[in-house]
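Student: Send me a single protein entry containing the residue sequence and its fold in token form, directly below this note:

Tutor:
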Amino acid sequence: MPFLEKVMLKSGLEDLFDARDVTEVVYRVMRDLMTTEASDRVAEELENKEVLPTEDKALKMDVADLWKDTNPIVGFLSRVRPPFKKHHGPGLFNIDDDRFLFRVKNEAPMAKTGFDLDREQVVSAVFSATKEELSQERIQEIAQYLPGRVRELWDAA
């Protein structure tokens, strides 16, 4: 089954474009926790892995294109700033479970329409589809960057 169809079905979303958009958001938050070098290793493994066999230009991309972020400004910033910390505490640059899930829900474009995302289900769906595309080494590397409950979702996916 194609990558975006897996995300769509497992997340409960009804649209491939929503699946694409929410995957990009989950990846953005994940990258925020990772070093640039670790993120590049993930991107390399996701190269040439089609999200969906289609002629639709809006969906004709590799999974790596979603990982790198289609927004050039966001993509640039994620490469030049240090990784956020996965620890809870004061400061803008900490990401705990709540902030991770909050960002997924609030940065997903469908949130603006009042669509209520089941954050954990959506994150689990993206994690599951992603892990099928990665080596065991990358799966373990990503796990070390994720906070508590989010790490549990990753391990269970």
Q: What stands out?
A: The chain has one domain: 3-156.
